[in-house]
């Protein structure tokens, strides 16, 4: 009995200890989660530079689900992106903050952005400078996108081992008709529009005359707007950039390869300095950080919490203008951020319509299109929003073409940048068949069906005439509906829209002339237009996005911390950089990846393969 009592007491003691330890572990985990979730208040010195150092691609919506994105970033995986609005919010808060006398603009890790996105950031930099504060830019490899921002600085410094490489815009595609012929793959194409060139990579060995003429027109428009922006910022003659680019092959060899001196002579930069020398200039303006010996600074990542708190404080009590970002390919169903889902984006629009605090909506579009069905679902929700009496204004970013224009059509007003690519009003479908491929290896297909259509849509048989007629009729009907949507929204006749449609891609300035957009201007101007339509004098824009549940927020905090502790040591930034470079240098992979996203059977697509570099 004594032994049994002893063992029972021991068991109760161990069980109590287990429960206590379990509770302690849970409390520790919860404390960590709350600590990371809420975040410590950022330390902002009494005098410091705001360090703006965008990494990867400058985007208007981060890609992927927040929890997975945080996990990948903590491990050093995933896509490197910087959110435009984080930068603009921080810069505008810093303009009003007496502790921030200068912005340090480090451009060496920016890998890409559309011109309209760059212009939004440049506009914030100009507002900062307008307060009398300075922007100091420095970099080693000032490529075209990086230089667009460097040109906005009061002082821009180029490393002695660096260069300013501006090469204009181009559009080259991979054409694989010959290899498909050799493999025996037949690409059955259905489209409407003389300029709908999306399918030409599979059906031609080179660019069609229509695509060549169209591409040259909008590339030259982008090049003109780039030159105008840069020469205006640097106070240079209008032809200064064109002369610099056209003479590089002569001027750099004549300078014995000293590209920085050529850029300096062309007045593209203020001076030639190493990063250490540029830091000395920033020390003069922001003081010395005793810990690092460099200039005293606060990063955007740290300053953002203060900037967002200030933005929220200023917005308290004001009516809201809801902002919905529609960035990426338009796909069916629910899609993560960075893509536009027929269901998920429609749900956000519906929430804005039903929310009494949202008085108007700005749809920020940066999309080359995608699924016609998903575009139609979004279109219907936007139409319902307007029918409910809420103004709808579209603000176009880099792309609002094909399906991107489809979802823009119902707006009360459309604002675009002169460098926006839009239009491409047309529809296509691609059905590959591989019966000849199978025949090359001795495989044949035979059988019977119960109707004239039986077996006509099999990939291992030639596409039948009845199936061709059926699909083409659906394409034609889809195009007619597209025309109706645009004609109704633009208050024009179908004939007027058809004349400028046909899959034609237009730059923003031409789109304004043709009536496809109403104004050229910035995102802020589009928000102000929505406020005017809602008769608001006081208002606050608010980005609308799916809310995370408490469990998701805790998971986000915990997984980020865990990945940071356990995964960061295993991350190999060199491998990630090489993978990104390989993707950029492999155009065939990019083309196939685009097509793979548009792979739902029996779907029509309104998509613009109009990416420029």
What structural category do the secondary elements indicate? alpha/beta
Number of helices: 23
CATH level 3 topology of one domain = 2-enoyl-CoA Hydratase, Chain A, domain 1
Give the second-level CATH assignment, the architecture of one domain. Alpha-Beta Complex
Q: Compute the gyration radius: what is it?
A: 28 Å
What characteristic shape results from the CA principal axes? globular
Number of strands: 23
What share of residues are in beta strands? Answer: 15-25%
CATH superfamily of one domain: 2-enoyl-CoA Hydratase, Chain A, domain 1
> Mean pLDDT, rounded to whole units?
86
Biggest sheet, open or closed, and with what strands and sense?
8 strands, mixed
Low-pLDDT segments, ≥5 res: 33-39, 555-579
Give the helix proportion (percent range): 40-55%
CATH class of one domain: Alpha Beta
In whole angstroms, the N-to-C terminal distance is 85 Å
